[in-house]
Amino acid sequence: MRVLEKSGKTVDDAIKASLEELGVTVDQVDIEIIDEGSKGLFGFGSRDAKVRVTLKYDAEKEVKKFLKDIIRTLKLNVDFLIYYSELESTMKIEFFGANVGFIIGHRGDVLDSLQYLCYLVANKERTDDKLIHVVIDAENYREKREMTLRNLAERMAKKAVSLHKNVVLEPMAPYERKIIHEALQNNPSVETYSIGEDPHRKVVIALKK
After folding, report:
1. Which of 2, 1, 47 is nearest to 21 (CA)?
2. Structural domain that includes position 94
3. Structural domain count of the chain
4. 60 and 68 Cβ atoms separated by less than 8 Å
5. CB-neighbour burial class of residue 99 (10 A; exposed 0-12, middle 13-18, buried 19+)
C-alpha cells in the first residue's frame, strides 16, 4: 500500500500534485487532510496545506499481475480475460490458449488451486465483510464438469438402488461434492453424506431407510 504526503498552497493543489506523482485519479485513492494551511495575516504567517494520499488496493490489477507472473514463469501459451464487478463483489477469470489443458489440470485441480490463490490476492486488503468471490474457468470446463458429475450422481444412485447397498464415490473437491449432494437431494430412494478428510473426502450415496 503506497502512502504519499504532499504540500501545496491549497488543499486542492496538494491533492492534484499527489495524483500527478502517483499517476492515478481521485477515485483510486483515499485522502486525509493533515493541514488545511493558512494565508496568514497581511502575508505573514502563511502556511501550506498538507495532505496524505493512500493508494487504494486495486484487486483486479493485482490479480492480473499475479497471473501474468505465473504464465511468464511457467512459459505457458495462454491468456485470460477478467470480468470484475466491484458492485457485486465478483471476479470471473476465463483462460484460453494452446496450453489451457495445463491450467485445468487433472480434473480441475490446477484450476481450483489458481482460483484459491487469486481469491487470496483479490482479498488481501479487504477488512470488511464484502469479500470478492473469484471464479476461474477455462474453455467452459466448470459447466462441462458439472454436467458430468450430475450424470455420475444419477448413475450411481441407480446402482445403489439396484445393488441394495451404499456406493462410495472417489475423493472430490468441496464444490464437486456439493454438486453431487444437490443433484440427489430430491431423489426419493437415496440420500448423500460425506466421509473422510480433505483432500480425500468422499461422497457416500446411501439407500434411504
Report:
1. 2
2. 59-139
3. 3
4. no
5. middle
Pairing mode, strands 90-97 and 133-138: parallel
Give the Cα separation of 43 and 38 in Å (integer).
10
Separation in Å, CA 63 to CA 78, 92, 139: 16, 11, 20
Do the Cβ atoms of 134 and 10 come closer than 8 Å? Answer: no
The model's pTM: 0.71
Nine-digit cell string for 200? 480425500
CA distances from 103 to 106, 137, 174 (A): 9, 9, 19
Peptide bond into 199 cis (omega under 30): yes
Whether residue 72 sits in one domain with residue 43: no
From residue 78, give the alpha-carbon distance in Å to each of 29, 47, 66, 100, 114. 33, 55, 14, 6, 14
Strand (E) or helix (H) holding 138? strand 133-138
Q: Residues 68-103: pLDDT tens digits?
A: 999 999 999 999 999 999 888 999 999 999 999 999
Final residue before a domain boundary, out of 14, 32, 55:
55
